[in-house]
Amino acid sequence: MRSSTAARILGGACLPLILAACGGGSSDSPAPPPTPPGTVDRIEPYDPSAGKAAAATEHASVQPVAQSARTVALAPLAAPKSAPAALKSGQPLEIGQARDVAATASASATAALLQWQPTAQGTQVAALRFVSPGAYGMRLGVWVQALPAGAVLRSYGAGGAATQISAAQLQAMAQRNAEGGASDAEAHTWWSPDFAAPETTLEIEIPAGTDPAAVRIAVPRLSHYSIDAAHWENAAATTKAAGDAGACNRDAICTPEYLDQSRAVARMSFTRSNGKSYWCTGTLMNDARNSGTPHFLTANHCISTQSEASSLVTDWFYRASACGTPTTDPAARRLTGGATLLSANANTDVSFLRLNDAPPAGAVYAGSYFGTPAAAGTPLVAVHHPAGDRQKISLGTLSSYQNCPDGGDLCQTSAPADANFIRLSWQQGVVEQGSSGSAAFLTLQGKRYVVGQLFRGSSSCDNPQGTDDYGRFDVSYRSALSKWLNP
User: In order of start, what are the domains of the chain with their CATH numbers?
Assistant: First the structure.
């Protein structure tokens, strides 16, 4: 595990960890003892669309401007990618490996390749097309050393609309990254989203009258996807990622009573400064005021630094279009704006973020529970993206409480008062790499609440008797997260 054992808050402040009794209970298990008057033990789920007519989500998109682009082509990879590590190691699923790009390693080399063209609006634009043969997708690590006010960067694939980020947004990202402890180069690196193809075009547009010499950017490396991340220019397409999870997993769409939880869960992709990219799973979290602030819960072993959070891409409603179908829900939506890291703590393997983009229409903010500990045998449910696949649901029970000092490997079964993890066993489905960070939900009085997020374990379709450990949400809530969820 690569993260610090101390609670980290953006800006460097740390909060003490308090090991507190956790919450549970189920409509199918004995009710917990009565809550003392005035005590808050949960935050209710929140559906902004409840009672409203369904509205289609419009894709905000821009179009490429440059008429031509020089091509920077890399050689084919010399060796196949090695198999990913098992979930039991507490590692996210690696989907992209770093490739150095010698032709654009410096700002001066990149500037020599740019061919500036005037536009009808009087601006100037230049573009470079990057090709990494055999890639299922790629992300460009764009090192922005200087960019004039009013400039924008765009990236796009072979046949779709472009994503765009402004100079002001890039500066805000760099400031957040620097405050989070990133080096200067890491702080100023923007990772473009992938387009499920072996090529991506980078376009720079600068205002009228601006000297192109004011642009100083480089692309010293890219992340070459060795696993298909889905064709997001055609969300209904069948992809390699759809179907990669073990056959014992059940599509979430096939269990309609959990569709509210399905709408709170997103597949995550992110890239680290070394150019490696990963998949995990995260959950949109409600606060006590129903404010609609896009708080997002995942695992510390997935995202533990601000620069990683800045690279976050989230895929929403990435699930089957109907039970038993091979196609993806056409409502699937992608957010590319990254996130702000609020808290990260290895002790319960928790990472708590605020998305920089508003969630798509139809998303639900999950509730959370931090009251009386649940008893062993209490039913729990996981909604997740194993192997980056379309969303699955797994039905299990709480088998024990675990004390794992500092989130390490030396765990012992313990009483709830001394535990920082809960251990789950499964009756239907399992979890896999790619499921990391996904929430476990407890049912109380007909509603469902988050009680933990996935760290590691041993279950698989070949080993359905394996168990998996989840960081206790109530411990994370009391040590830090209540600052944002119940201020």
Answer: 8-28+236-485 (2.40.10.120), 95-225 (2.60.120)
